[in-house]
Structures are given as C-alpha cells and as structure tokens.
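Supplementary Note 3. Input sequence used for the single-chain structure prediction.
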Amino acid sequence: MTAIGGMPDPTGAGLDTCTSRLETLVTTIAQVAQRAGVSTATVSRVLNGKPVRADLAQAVQRAAADLAYLPDRTARSLRRRYSDVVALILPDIENPFFTSVARGVEDVAQQAGLSVVLCNTDDEPAKEERYLSIAAGENMAGVILAPASATPRLAPLTDKQRVVVVLDRPVSAEVDQVFFDNISLGREATRRLLQRSFTRIACVTGPRRTSTAVDRAAGWRAAMEEAGWAADDALLRHVNFKVDGGRTAMRHLLDLADPPDAVLATNNLVGVGVLQKLVRTYGSTDHLGVGIIGDLPFATSPVEGLTLVPLRPRELGVQAAQLFLERLRGDVEPARRVVVADR
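The predicted structure, written as discrete structure tokens, is reproduced below.
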C-alpha cells in the first residue's frame, strides 16, 4: 500500500509559504469561479460533491475542464495534515460481494475528490493489523474497514483523529458502522425454506469469529425453533466463507446418517460450493432444497428451485463512504450504526 501526498512538516515551519507556492502553480478556484460566473463557494461545493443546482454544477464542471483545473492535493494536505487518500480494507476482494462494496465506496469517494487504496486481508487478522498500522503511520484521511478481527486495532487511527468507518461486520468500537441485520436475514431465508415444506434444514455459515456468520446462524436457529422444528447442532457447519468451504460442509452433511432435506448457505461463495457438491454427487441441484443469502455469482443460467435472499452490497459501500465524508468535513455527532435495508 503506497501513501499518496506529501508528509506534513512535523515542525510546521514554512508551512504557509510552501502552501502558497504550491497554489500559485495551478489554476485556482477563483479562476474557475470567474469563468463559470459563480461564487468560489459554489465551486467548492461542486468540487466536494455537495448539492448544487444542476445548471450551476454544469457551468463549474465546464470551466474546470476548460482551465484543466485539478485540486492541489499536496497543498490541501499541508493545510489539513492529511492527504486525500482513504484506505479501503476488505477481507476478500475476489468475492463479488466485496467488489460491489468497493464500487460503492469508490463512486462516492471519486465524486468528492478522494483516492481509494484497496487492501485485501484474506480475512486474516494479522494482515488486517498490518494494513491498519500502515494507514495510521501514513498521512491518510482514514480507513473504511470490513474487519477480519472482532476487535480490530483502531486506536492508533482514532487517537490521531483519523476517520474510521466499519462496514458489514459490526465491532464494539465507538466508530461509525454500516451493516445488514444479519439475524433477520438468517431468519427470513430459513422461513422461505420452511414455507416450501422443508423441515430438516442445515445451515452452512462462516467462521465462528465472524459476526455475520454467527448472526445469520442465530437467525436460522430462531426460525427453526419458532416453526417447532429442532435446530440440530449436527446440521450447523462453520467453514471459511469461500467456495471450498461450501463444498466441504455439504460433503459432511450428505454423509450424515440422517442428512438434511434442505440447506441454507449464509453467503454467496459458500452457496456456490454447496451447489457444486450437489451437482457432482447427484448430477443436479434438485436433490434437496437450497437457500442462499446474497446474489449467486458466476451463474450463467438460473438454478431451478433456488431460494435467494438478495443483498445490496454496493449500497453498503455508498453509505459507508458518505459517513466517511461527513466525518471528514467536520461532523462530530456520536458514532452512528446504520442498518442497510436488504431490499
């Protein structure tokens, strides 16, 4: 991960002079405002992604393009003591779910003039800690994090008043967080399978240390018990949140003396693994009921009889980035916990 933007002068000496010199080398906001026929405040609002009347925004954008205006990130970094860079730290960038999250973050960040550095932890707390340490050591604006650890080390960042927003997997830290109601998701997916007359429903979920995995399994258990059916512990499988985890869990479930008549996969890649194992064993996926929380990736044609509870990962990224920008612009309200509607 490479930091972008100059490091701040630790003494502060010569800061104003250096900033002034930098600003004389580029087109200024005042020049853009004059060409567009608007105030400098309007130019600033457009460049920072704030609401502005459409015709005024278009005039500013045309003027900026005509003058080849680019915000002088180094000068702003010197004034604020951080750069226009945000680290987006995700557990698995190969998972289409997190690809959509990243797209949502990037779309909002780009509109606000921020650059996004993408970091992949492979869902390993040690890698996460290293990236967080690097982000704290550089002059980044802050971090948007989908944590691999239940207790990520955020203090080095928050102590320096860097912005931190957590998404997808809630933590106990007092920072802004955006996530789904995962217990409700597990309950709803299980209820849909129960409505199809399945009664011995297995649950294949992620690692025990991952809150989304635990909460979705809790929703499965609650729905089973509410319907008067046993949530058999033999039918609950914790695996990695990947395709091979789904295949492994399905193999063990099919080897049981009393196998399930349906299975709930609590994420998209686990669901792919479950379906692959069924096809390899029976030649099709219709041997038992399958429910998946999330959109099915890699599918080239519909899977018959599949129960899907879709998610909105891009919206997760969008809302996390919007919270990040609000903090960056000075919001000092207490930490917020935002639950994104699943539909």
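Residues 1-26, 73-79 have pLDDT under 50 and may be disordered. The chain is about 45% helix and 15% strand.
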